[in-house]
Amino acid sequence: MCNYERSFRSSLGFTNQEKLKKYFKATDFVVVNWDKINQCNARLKEICEKINRTISSDIQIADIDEFTNKINEAFVIMRDNNIFPRLNNQGRNPDDVYYNWMRGYLICEMFIPAIARIFGIPEENILHTGQDDLTNLETFARAATADLEIITVDNERIRLEMQAGYTGTNDIKRSKILEAISKKQNDNINTYVVHIDVFNGKAAIIDISNADDSRLNYHKAFENTDVLTINPEWFVWKLANPLPELNTVITSI
User: Measured between alpha carbons, how far is 150 from 123 in angstroms, rounded to an integer?
Assistant: First the structure.
């Protein structure tokens, strides 16, 4: 009987039972809510403008309108490459996946000039190393690799894992820490987490290169992921205050 049932479902064009169930219930459709995405784009622009007005004048973006053009540029690339209908990570709606990715992307880009200044390097010494590719769904995914790499004045390579917090809850994924430990052991490259907490107006720069994974207190977060809570005391950089010296804000774990 089991072989018959499997054969019957196969004749319908389905070898996966869950896909057939969704087909019968018509829950397999992915509908892109373009109206909501347009609203998301407007909100993202507003967020950038509000943050830029609030942070210290020495790290503000001079032309915020030019900066927020990145939103439309990314949107057009993704729309023209038919990326939106396939953005359904863990069953989430495409507009939610898009908004969360774009929000993180913009915060990262917004603070690149400040990061260059705090590390005492020109902006061209900051390289993008993340695996996000707006034209290719296969690489439009979360990865354990850092987002940026900087070349210091001493020609030292440092990888920066860019993160942003929007609710006051700030964590580091264990996968990021394990990747950093491996990078240090195999390539002698340090990795810093740069976590921008825009909810509280603070930032933390955390050296995770030499972390002792066995001694860290992880807990389970969304999607059953192991994460380390960032200690509030590590948020030394106050975004509304003048840019601090690098050696006063780095925390090592």
Answer: 9
Q: State the residue for tokens 């896909």.
A: 19
Instruction: Output the CA angle 199-200-202, nearest 5 degrees.
Output: 115
Report the distance separating Cα 115 and Cα 108, nearest Å: 10
- E strand intervals along 11-156: 126-128, 148-151
Residues 170, 221 contacting (CB under 8 angstroms):
no
Longest dimension (CA), the chain: 73
16 pLDDT higher than 80: yes
Residue 136, helix vs strand vs coil: coil
pLDDT at 132 over 60: no
Angle of CA points 133, 135, 141, to nearest 5°: 40
The structure tokens listed for 204 are: 């933390």
Confidence bin at 144 (pLDDT 50/70/90): very low
The end-to-end CA distance of the chain, in Å, is 58
The rounded distance, in Å, linking the Cα atoms of 13 and 176 is 40
pLDDT band at 89 (very low <50, low <70, confident <90, very high): low
pLDDT at 93: 85
